[in-house]
Amino acid sequence: MQTIIEPFRIKSVEPIYFTTKEERETILRAAHFNTFRIKARDVLIDLLTDSGTSAMSSNQWAGIMQGDESYAGSESFFRFENSVRSITNMPYIIPTHQGRASEKIIFSILGGKGKYFISNTLFDTTRANIEFSGAEGIDCICEEGKHPTIPAPFKGNMDTVLLQKTIEQVGAENIPLIIMTITNNSGGGQPVSMQNLREVKAICKQYKIPLYIDACRFAENAYFIKIREEGYAQKPIPEIVREMFSYADGCTMSAKKDAFANIGGFLAMHDLDLALRCRNLLIITEGFTTYGGLAGRDLEAIAIGLQEIMDEHYLQYRIRSMEYLTEKLANAGVPVMQPAGGHAVYLDAKQFLPNIPANQYPGQALVCALYTHGGIRAVEIGSLMFGKYDEAGKLIPAQLELVRLAIPRRVYTQSHIDYVAEVIIEVFEKRDQISGLKIIEETPLLRHFTAKLKPVEN
Ligand SMILES: *Cc1c(COP(=O)(O)O)cnc(C)c1O
User: Fold this and answer.
1) Residue closest by Cα to atom 8 of ligand 1
2) Which fold has domain 58-308?
3) Which of 49, 54, 96, 185 to mutate to test the pocket of ligand 1 (most atoms within 8 A of CB)?
4) Ligand 1 center to residue 260 CA distance, Å?
């Protein structure tokens, strides 16, 4: 097979800055071993997130100039609304400044003490917004999804037996929504099958619970369905996307992911009454209903990006990029999540650093090693992000200890990725020299963003 090439050429470039290993050691210490605290300029290859980091197309930049900045009823809003509607087929579309703003609105309205939201896996901001409302979030990921290195085509699927059991346990009347995160970000960017969406929808119908999609990576998910699920190989991506959304009563979206935008998001739904309540809250917290915390030009970028992302050449290149890095690492014996996810490559830190226990945050220790060794910024998705404490103050570790290398869309070339693979393999060969970390300062919610840590002395 021929090499799958980047389906674009580069019109404008941005320099990256080199540092020495010694400089990076000093920088990391000053940042209290938390890479969120490092200046972006001190990072060589930034794989912290694929969120808001996409390279926009010349069309999107042209759209930016067309932005209509009218406060109410701007042209840009209607183009945005049409674009979102063409994908979701939902009548009520509410722009927000990013995904978590949509979450804040919907969970403030539907959440509260005694309520439960069930998902395949809730993303960290989603869970935080649920818990902030006083409600509880419950993950019902399928068995395959719990084993990072065992291959399966749809490791993001909901465990439907567990879902039904959980509904019976907490009572359908206490579950305002069931949420399918596609692809499953915290579970490794793994896709959800159409079959699973259909089955979850049937359960939702049976118990009269609305089904929402956390749609951040809807296009990547659709491409996985196309190449992995029987009956979809010949279907165009927009058709697969429409079928996915046909099972949903509503969705939340961060346009910083599968819309190639640097900022933005939306809420969309079929329920008019709920939409009116959301709009009321939107006006208080985000802005008027036709801009919701965004500039007209942002709405344009999103409207165009949402259509561009469904290009099959792009999606093929995108998914292949993750496989390429995964294969290189797996061939060198590095424990890496398999198969590759849609937007990121995940290292299994439990296996990478078996001598570092969960309460010494093996994932974060690996993140720090990748930065010092090669200037690569990754993110821990493990006990630093999701760990909790029991009543005695003992850490309840996360199920998985992962390190995510999120790949910004259309930003890095193959040689950048080759360099990343080399650095990881070198760190793997020297893994015995890596020590664990302990937290010296933290906040109660989303602590990983700001926590301060220090190495554990052996
Ligand atoms: C990024 C993300 C969010 C939150 O979106 P923001 O734009 O970062 O606020 C919610 N869910 C998933 C699955 C995400 O990846």
Assistant:
1) 99
2) Aspartate Aminotransferase; domain 2 (3.40.640)
3) 185
4) 13
pLDDT tens sequence for the chain (458 residues): 788 999 999 999 999 999 999 999 999 999 999 999 999 999 999 999 999 999 999 999 999 999 999 999 999 999 999 999 999 999 999 999 999 999 999 999 999 999 999 999 999 899 999 999 999 999 999 999 988 778 899 999 999 999 999 999 999 999 999 999 999 988 889 999 999 999 999 999 999 999 999 999 999 999 999 999 999 999 999 999 999 999 999 999 999 999 999 999 999 999 999 999 999 999 999 999 999 999 999 999 999 999 999 999 999 999 999 999 999 999 999 999 889 999 999 999 999 999 999 999 999 999 999 999 999 999 999 999 988 889 998 999 998 899 999 999 999 999 999 999 999 999 999 999 999 999 998 888 778 888 999 999 76
Which of 102, 254, 256 is the best mutation target for the ligand 1 pocket, counting ligand atoms within 8 Å of the beta carbon and taking the most?
254
Q: Where are the domains of the chain?
A: 21-50+311-455, 58-308
pTM to 2 decimals?
0.93
Greatest distance between any 2 Cα atoms in the chain: 63
Number of residues in the chain:
458
Dist. CA 308–CA 240, nearest whole Å: 15
According to CATH, the topology of domain 21-50+311-455 is: Aspartate Aminotransferase, domain 1 (3.90.1150)
Ligand 1: residues whose CB is within 6 Å?
51, 98-100, 123, 125-126, 181, 185, 214, 216, 254, 256-257, 265
Amino acid identity for residue 309 in this structure: I
For the CA of 254, the closest atom of ligand 1 is: 7
Residue 456 per-residue DSSP state = P
The preferred substitution site among 105, 257, 266 for testing ligand 1, maximizing ligand atoms within 8 Å of CB, is: 257
